[in-house]
Design brief:
Elements: H1 2-34, E1 43-49, E2 57-69, E3 73-79, H2 96-103, E4 113-115, E5 117-119, E6 122-128, E7 130-137, E8 143-144, E9 147-156, E10 159-164, E11 166-168, E12 179-180, E13 185-191, E14 194-196, E15 198-200, E16 206-214, E17 225-230, E18 234-236, E19 242-245, E20 248-249, E21 257-259, E22 268-272, E23 274-275, E24 278-279, E25 288-297, E26 308-317, E27 326-336, E28 338-340, E29 353-358, E30 365-367, E31 372-376, E32 393-395, E33 404-407, E34 410-418, E35 429-438, E36 444-452, E37 464-471, E38 474-479, E39 484-489, H3 502-528
Parallel strand pairs: 1-11, 15-27, 29-39
Antiparallel strand pairs: 1-6, 2-3, 2-4, 2-7, 5-6, 7-9, 8-12, 9-10, 13-14, 13-16, 16-25, 17-22, 17-26, 18-25, 19-20, 19-25, 21-22, 23-24, 26-27, 28-33, 29-30, 31-32, 31-34, 34-35, 35-36, 36-37, 37-38
Amino acid sequence: MSKLKKMLSMVLAMVMILAMSIPTFAANGKNEGNAATGTASDKGTITVSGVEETGVTVKAYQIIKAKYENGGKFSGYESLYPDIITNVTGDVDVTSAQLAEIIAITDKVAGTEYDMTKSGTTYTAEVPVGSYVVVITGAENKIYNPVVVSVVYKNKDGKTAMDFNEVDVTDTTNAWVKVSDNPTLDKVIVEGDEEVKGNTANIGDTVSYKLTATIPYYGGKYPVFNIVDTLDGLTYKAGTLKVKVGDVDLTEDTHFTLTPADADITNTMTIDFVVSNAYTLNEYAGQNLTITYDATVNEDAHINQDANTNSATLNFTKDSKVTGQEDNDSDKTYTYTYDIDAAVEGSVTSEIITKYGKESGNADLVKLPGAEFTLYTDAACENVYTNDVFDGTVTTNDNGQMPIKGLKAGTYYLKETKAPESYTLNDTVYTIEIAQQLDNNGKLTAWSIKINGDTIADQDGIKSEFKVTYEGETITVDKTKNETQILNTKISNLPSTGGIGTTIFTIGGCVVMIAAAGLFFATRKKSAK
């Protein structure tokens, strides 16, 4: 009986083992049918179409390759430039900056460059599995940005299938491709993470600029490619100029010349990419050239509606094989700064704030010089506002006005901190709001200055407002109230009683003191005898 039990136990154990093995075999069979079966000999075709120019060169450079392991079977992808491209998938997403950095590498990975064959306006190449950047050079009538194409594996119906990428360079919706007839220039002001065409600044503030141009290819003897940048009301900050393609820094005297020298630039500079009669940017054709620098708003800045218009011009040739093909493209930015009470001759803000004196019992007001005011950036009047031409305090002139120049749009607080001699101090805090409106091109469409003087009884609760608007070339000035009147009351002398008052007591006291002194000395003299 015990032997029978042992035999049954062994049979049961074998049945359990077989039962556990069935799903394992089934799973292996299912996975085998869907497993990637690609090998290193697999190739696919990449295609770039829409290249209409003749005499161009189209090359593909591999940036992602397929890996083959476990007996030569496909196992994934890896980057050929791991320091630049770190996140690798079948359809790789590469930024324009990464492309620029890869293209700039002269010693690319050996064996990864492929010439693409022309057929009409289409170029093709049979390449191993992976992703490629395609560079089109030699076209002088159009500019082509680099494009990315891929050959990848995709499982279909349980088998590994090849899939390839085709790019139409004339398709403007393609994220990687841009085709233009001529190089263009864009100039913007950089404020943090934003790029704008117009802004406002204090005198002394630093403004950061960025210029971007598409790089053409020139194969002839007459290349022209330079940028002339002119600052108006700003001064270039020495040592801040940077010239780059993507993340690649270009070198002065190798890639460009700078005129005048960096230390001598004030408001105009020329950056020329033809050095010693040779064009230096063909290896970057189709990519974006970026120039950045800083400038400071100077004391000669235009004020109010007169913009500090800063312009840049890109000079280029359409065809370097012949002379006389020069053209240009320009762009501008606008910077505005404001004043209060005629800080410069002709200012339209004249007499929006006036300091007046008033004598007790006299209704007449007189414009009052000699009153000191301080401008603050906070309502508590703790932080004094200053700029390069204003130290924070201003004294009213003979017209009772307080010239302040170089204010950016914003909110300020004005308070009298020292009254003229024989006048009381006015301790009212006046809120000054400077606002501006710009269009999409950065140009001023309206601006205003408001002074909140409603705590002064003579103001009758009225808020002063100065507003300027534009209709084409017509400028409309509206002063809702002609001026904000800041009043000081004259301190009166002590009134006279009309009698001799204390005069008699003063004289009497002096007589008594003189008599006492005479008696004292006479007594000492008598005692001495």
